Amino acid sequence: MKTAYFWLTPQGKQLAEQLQAHFGGTVEPKADFAEAVRRAFADCDALVFVMAAGIVVRTIAPLVQSKASDPAVLVLDQRGKHVISLLSGHLGGANAMAEQAAAYLGGEAVITTATDVEHVPAFDLFAKENHLTIENLEELKYISGALVAGEPVSLCTAFPVEKNAFPETVQLQPFSEMPRHACAVAIADTTESVAAPHVLYLRPKSLVLGVGCKKQIPPAHLEQCFRTFLQEHHLSLSAVEKLATIGLKREEPAILALCEKYRLPLEIVADADIQACAYPFAASAFVQQVTGLPSVSEASAYLASGCGEVLTGKVKYSGVTFAACRKTIEPLHWKERGQ
């Protein structure tokens, strides 16, 4: 975690240096304070201020954008008595950082997040701990509001969970069943909807897509095929972990452009692994002639997913093929507070 510490007084600098020595990070100079904060807000995972909270609020106010992307922000008095989690308590990790810093300093963590105060489930924290992508963050307030009010929430999941670890207010049910409550959390890598007034969709990074294409295929065409493939097979873009292809296509401009635009890593599957694989891919004489391999997209998806569940096989478009496989996902867990 990249952390920047800010201070305004000699005592504040001493405390910032003490925290930096224990937790790591960089103590910023006092000069050019506002500009240094602006840079750190864009570049760092956490900002720690040893100064009055009012100064911090006025300084970061123009920089705040979204709880999905803002860094964690902590504020401490210069004696370290109070450690305030000011911004990005769950997704940014500020609440956990405040508790750790307070424990180290012998001070008190000041946390105002309603779910933490009332000791009820927090699904943004659950998503972070289980490496799930929150697809519609705007729905989180309804889910959290229901739980704070003591109302149960349906957890509709297509993936295995550790059932005994969930609080009583979170009622588990299969993804295919109608939610029993007005607020629901849905965990799936497909785009089928859940029929409830308020649904928070969480996506595991479970999908691996294999891709093959003609040389110098236009990037716009490959992207259109990519989006069409996802739509036709009801696969969530948020659940795609990576693309995979063969060594011959490692420098294909359209594939690299697609990966860059959607921030997807590209895995190159070795020819020898495809040749040795016993899975009955849909072989193509043309592909064999051009690449020396029986399969490109289907074999790449299968092997890059760790020989996961085959969802589609090879799907052909003009000059392009895609295939999708699902990785095995570890059972989702609810981390008990204090662990």
Roughly what percent helix? 25-40%
Number of helix segments? 12
**How much is the radius of gyration in Å?**
24 Å
Question: Strand-residue fraction?
Answer: 15-25%
* Poorly predicted ranges: none
Number of strands: 17
What order do the helices and strands follow?
EHEHEHEEHEHHEHEEEEEHEHEHHHEEE
Structural class: alpha/beta
Largest sheet: 6 strands, mixed
> How do the strands of the widest beta sheet line up side by side?
2-1-3-4-5-6
Mean pLDDT: 91
Q: Give the end-to-end Cα distance, rounded to a whole number of Å.
A: 20 Å
C-alpha geometry: globular
Keywords:
alpha/beta, 6-stranded mixed β-sheet, 339 residues, globular, single chain, 12 helices
Could you characterize what this model shows?
The chain is an alpha/beta fold and 339 residues long. 32% of the residues lie in helices and 24% in strands. It is built from 12 helices and 17 strands. The strands form 3 sheets. Strands 2-1-3-4-5-6 form a 6-stranded mixed beta sheet, sandwiched between helices. α8 (219-232) crosses α9. The protein is globular. It starts with a strand and ends in a 13-residue tail after the last strand.
